[in-house]
Amino acid sequence: MSDSNPFGSGSQYATTVQFGTDPAPAGSAPADVIKDTTTAAFSADVIQESRNQPVLVDFWAPWCGPCKQLGPVLEKAVLAAGGRVKLVKMNIDEHPAIAGQLGIQSIPAVIAFKDGQPVDGFMGAVPESQINEFIARLGGGKDDGKAALAEALAAAAEARGQGDAQTAADIYGAILQQAPDSAEAAAGLADILFEAGDAEGAGAVLDGVPEDTRDAPEIAAIRTKLSLAAQAAELGDAAELEKRLQQDPGDHQARFDLAMIQNAKGERMEAADNLLAIIKADRTWKDDGARAQLLQFFEAWGMTDEATLAARRKLSSLLFS
């Protein structure tokens, strides 16, 4: 991170983020860069088309006020990308199946598909700058100018990835002093505290974010993570649950409880695989409770987490096969 960065100096971590080339002028995109789709056309419009360039799917409904706010801003950003991404709009009132299968529980929701798979996403009527950053991550645009913040966040993520949680926490703390509305920094710091066993401290960080940031997906994800950990603490011994499964592989409750404990221990893929096994065996168990819990895991892990992406692909294969 550069010495002139206002979010902290002297860090050994430096991450370069490539946002691609400048976007084409608005209006220069191909005519079909934005379109509506149906359940029947979803595979062609999204799955197949995403093999050519990223496709954003906007799940919306006519009665949804935030959807009406997001729509024009999202379309403007896609047009500005000059055909590097496409936008497909799906009215969930007329076509609810795909949204339900992908675990869309609130709208507006935007899921990005690339090479036939969901790779990223966000929920809510986010600001135009955040949409531009989102498209930039997919290779369709340019950084909106908040280079110092992006550099600091990247350095914190790099430090944490190398096991240096203290440095990451220091950077997140410095960011929050300068930009208290940074949901990513607050979530990062809270997550570090939680992983260190300080759930109370993590909760205090989340409670301290500004009111207009509290519903951010990153904040919601950590809150869900804290809630899931509290639930798992009451479920007993993992070894005993594994013993029950050896005796009866069809004991869905034991498998479900084991998944909860595995998630609390950070064994994400193992937790997901146990829930997927229940879904495959019996979708009706507890009113599709295993799938509902898996969607909660996705929220807690984050839409771009490797375990989320891998498990979502497996879930899609189960649902669409």
Structural commentary:
The protein has helices spanning 42-48, 65-80, 97-101, 128-137, 147-161, 165-178, 183-195, 199-207, 217-232, 238-247, 252-264, 268-281, 289-301, 306-320; strands at 34-36, 55-60, 86-91, 109-114, 117-123. By secondary structure, it is α/β, with parallel strands linked by helices. It has a 5-stranded mixed sheet, sandwiched between helices. The longest helix is centred in the N-terminal third of the chain and has 16 residues, at 65-80.
Annotation keywords:
single chain, 9% strand, 14 helices, five-stranded mixed beta sheet, globular, alpha/beta
Structure summary:
The chain is α/β, with parallel strands linked by helices.
- Count of alpha and pi helical runs: 14
Alpha-carbon Rg, integer: 21 Å
Kindly report the average pLDDT value: 83
Low-confidence stretches: 2-7, 13-31, 141-145
How far the N terminus sits from the C terminus, by CA atoms, comes to: 46 Å
Structural class: alpha/beta
The biggest beta sheet is recorded as: 5 strands, mixed
Number of beta-strand segments:
5
Any chance you could write out the topology, listing elements then pairs?
Elements: E1 34-36, H1 42-48, E2 55-60, H2 65-80, E3 86-91, H3 97-101, E4 109-114, E5 117-123, H4 128-137, H5 147-161, H6 165-178, H7 183-195, H8 199-207, H9 217-232, H10 238-247, H11 252-264, H12 268-281, H13 289-301, H14 306-320
Parallel strand pairs: 1-3, 2-3
Antiparallel strand pairs: 2-4, 4-5
Helix pairs in contact: 2-4, 5-6, 6-7, 7-8, 7-9, 9-11, 9-13, 10-11, 11-12, 12-13, 12-14
